[in-house]
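Here is the promised in-class demo. Please do not try to memorize the tokens; focus on the logic of going from shape to residues.
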């Protein structure tokens, strides 16, 4: 039941990348959050969240078959990456249409079309491809290279933020150009130095049988990131740019607590995929959840304690948002556990069930958050209620996930007995 030495070393390698990225990302976040105004940061965060969601439409989710092939049949990786590239081009019109609809609904009166488009290009055509290279490296167990690539990407963004902060023009439009330049540079580095040696070859007969998995995975990823980022979009729609900026800062700090959890999730997914199952009974599962919750809350608590003697430690705008940290203390645990549940279902290939669960979670979160913001609109009134919102979302996620996992062994056994 205990991890072997190789698994521990692999986890520490991934974690080292997360730790390096954590430090660099913190510096990057502090520079950007304190250089832009709160309203501008709110717009940047929500537009980036929109790009993050839409990036999951790229290649109609074919990154999922690419990852599975990299993990279990790396000799086919060149063929699957060629298929990914072709499908990525075909998916661009659908992404453009979705982007135009979202811009009209949320950003038309708040953000010019050019910076919005540039942000989407950075997230969808640049950073998503960097993620694909990192995913491929992790799939073939080149964890060190994947960790280094992530650190380089975060470092280039931080360098761009430093240059931007030194400009006389510190507008959102100028920052968007800097952000795009750093992300594009990261993509060039990824494709030049980090793509594993392979020969791209287009093999059409391989792709149709994987498209169902890809489309399901894409829908699941879109729903996952929609439920994860929906709160930022609702804050912008219901409370305006300034509250959206304060909330985005608070959630960015909370998101930093998820990095060690995501390293664990990545190793767990690979183990479940290799073993065709999840070892351990309810006690072990409960212990894992307690560990994730403790690490998540502990990370935010460390930030709170650091700010007690030094309120301005993280900058002016972050200090303005710091009043949200105590009231939202349980949010990191609930948020990271929902992400953990989604990874469990992905590893067990319960894609359809994962999509249905994420749809239910998204609807529940949207309804609860809208009720909270309309019922308690004051700056200091809505924050404590977010613990209830994320707590109820967690209860739904846990109940459905573990019920599905309990049914999985029987389903696997039946499929193996089938002729």
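The designed amino acids, position by position:
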């Amino acid at each position: 039941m205990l991890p072997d030495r190789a698994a521990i070393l692999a986890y520490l390698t991934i974690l080292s990348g997360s730790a390096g990225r954590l430090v660099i990302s913190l510096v990057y976040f502090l520079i950007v959050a304190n250089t832009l105004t709160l309203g501008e940061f709110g717009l940047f965060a929500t537009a980036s969240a929109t790009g993050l969601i839409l990036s999951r439409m790229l290649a109609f989710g074919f990154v999922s078959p690419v990852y599975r092939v990299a993990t279990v049949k790396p000799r086919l990786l060149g063929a699957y990456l060629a298929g990914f590239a072709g499908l990525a081009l075909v998916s661009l019109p659908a992404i453009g249409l979705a982007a135009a609809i979202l811009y009209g609904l949320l950003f038309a009166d708040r953000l010019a079309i050019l910076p919005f488009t540039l942000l989407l290009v950075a997230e969808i055509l640049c950073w998503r491809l960097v993620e694909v290279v990192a995913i491929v490296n992790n799939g073939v167990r080149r964890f060190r290279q994947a960790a280094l690539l992530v650190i380089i990407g975060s470092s280039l963004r931080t360098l761009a933020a430093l240059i931007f902060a030194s400009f006389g023009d510190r507008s959102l439009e100028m920052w968007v150009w800097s952000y795009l330049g750093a992300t594009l540079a990261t993509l060039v580095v990824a494709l030049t130095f980090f793509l594993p040696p392979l020969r791209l070859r287009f093999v059409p007969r391989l792709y149709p049988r994987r498209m169902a998995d890809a489309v399901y995975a894409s829908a699941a990823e879109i729903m996952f990131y929609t439920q994860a980022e929906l709160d930022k979009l609702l804050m912008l729609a219901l409370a305006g740019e300034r509250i959206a900026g304060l909330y985005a800062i608070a959630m960015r700090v909370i998101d930093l607590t998820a990095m060690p959890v995501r390293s664990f999730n990545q190793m767990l997914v690979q183990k479940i995929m290799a073993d065709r199952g999840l070892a351990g009974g309810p006690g072990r599962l409960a212990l894992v959840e307690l560990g994730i919750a403790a690490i998540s809350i502990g990370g935010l608590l460390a930030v709170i304690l650091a700010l007690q003697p030094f309120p301005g430690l993280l900058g002016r705008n972050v200090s303005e948002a710091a009043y949200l940290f105590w009231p939202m203390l349980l949010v990191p645990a609930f948020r990271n556990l929902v992400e953990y549940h989604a990874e469990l279902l992905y590893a067990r290939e319960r894609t359809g069930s994962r999509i249905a669960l994420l749809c239910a979670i998204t609807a529940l979160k949207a309804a609860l958050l809208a009720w909270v913001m309309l019922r308690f609109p004051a700056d200091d009134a809505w924050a404590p209620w977010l613990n209830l919102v994320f707590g109820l979302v967690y209860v739904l996620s846990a109940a459905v996930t573990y019920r599905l996992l309990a049914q999985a062994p029987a389903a696997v056994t039946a499929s193996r007995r089938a002729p």
